[in-house]
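Researcher: Before we compare anything, I want clean individual predictions. No alignment, no superposition, just each chain on its own. First chain goes here; please echo the sequence and then give the C-alpha cells.
Model: Echoing the first chain and its structure:
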Amino acid sequence: MTDDELKSRLEALQPAVEDHEIEAALLRTRSAAQARQRRRRVAVRLAPVLAAAATVAVVMLAILGRGNGHSPPASPSSPTPSAGDINAWFRHAVGLTTGGGVAKPSSVWVVRLSDPDHGTFDVRPTAQFGSGTLTYDGSRGGWVVAVLNKDCQGRDGVYRVEHDGPSLTFTVVTDHCGLRRDLLDNAVFAPLTSPDQLVG
C-alpha cells in the first residue's frame, strides 16, 4: 500500500468536520476567554476595596474586643469605696502645732462606712465637734459631707473619696466651709485596727 492510499484510507475513517462546527467551537473558546478577562478586571478593581474592608473589620474587632473586658473600665468622676469596705472604720488625727513644733492632737476623726454609698463621721471630742454623715451623690461629683454643722452653718461640702490600699483619702470638690475644707482636703484616713485609736 502506498502512502497516498494509506492517507486516503485514514481520511475515510475520520468523521467529516463541518465548517460551522469549527466556527462554533472558536466562538465558545473566545467567549470563555472574555469571561475570564472580565473576572480578572473585576478582581483587580475590587482588590483595594476588599483590603480596606478587611482592615476596617480588624480595627472594629480590636475596638469591640477592648470593650468586652480587655481594658479597664472608665473610672467614675468620684470613685466610691468597694463593697468590701462595708462596715469598715477609718481614723484621722488632727493636731495643733505647739510653740516647740510638736503636733498635739486636738481632734480625732473616725469614719465608718456602713455600705458603699453611706457612712458616718464621729469627731472627738464629740461634745465639741459632734458627728456627721457622708453620702455618695454622683450628680454632685462625689461624696456629700455633712459634719461640723455648728461651725459650717449647716452647709455641706462635696469631696472625692479614694480608697488607696488600706486608706481613704479625701479631696475637696467644693466646700464653702473653710474650717472643714482645711481639715478634710487631702486628709488620709488610716484603717482603724484597735479600739484604743478611737481616743482623741
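Researcher: Okay. Second chain, same rules.
Model: Second chain and its structure:
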Amino acid sequence: MGLACAAVTLSLVVQSRAWMHTTGKLHVWYHLVLFGVLGALALRASDRLSRRIAWLAGVLLLGLAIEMLEERGILSAVEWGDVLLDCWGVALGCLAVWLFSGTSKAR
C-alpha cells in the first residue's frame, strides 16, 4: 500500500516526474518495475484465487487512475502507452512470482 501511495503522490508532482525519469530514457523501466513489484505483491497477497484476481484488478485500476489523475492534475493527456506498460509490468511481476515460487517445478 505504501508503494502504491508513494507512486500516486510522486506522479502528481511535476518536479518529481522529472526526478523519477517519467519523461526520459528510464520512463519505460519505471512503469515496468513499479507495476511488476505491485503485481507480484498482489499475487502473493492471498492464497485464494478470487482475492488474487481482485488484488491484480486493483493494481491495474491504480495504473489507470494515476494516468487520469495526472490528466486532471497537470493537464496532460492520458498516456495509454503508460497504461499498457503498467499492464505489462503486472504481467511480468506475476510471471516472476510463478517462476520463482517453486510451483513451476515438475512433481
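Researcher: What stands out in the second chain?
Model: The chain has one domain: 13-100. Additionally, Residues 49-74 form the longest helix (26 residues).
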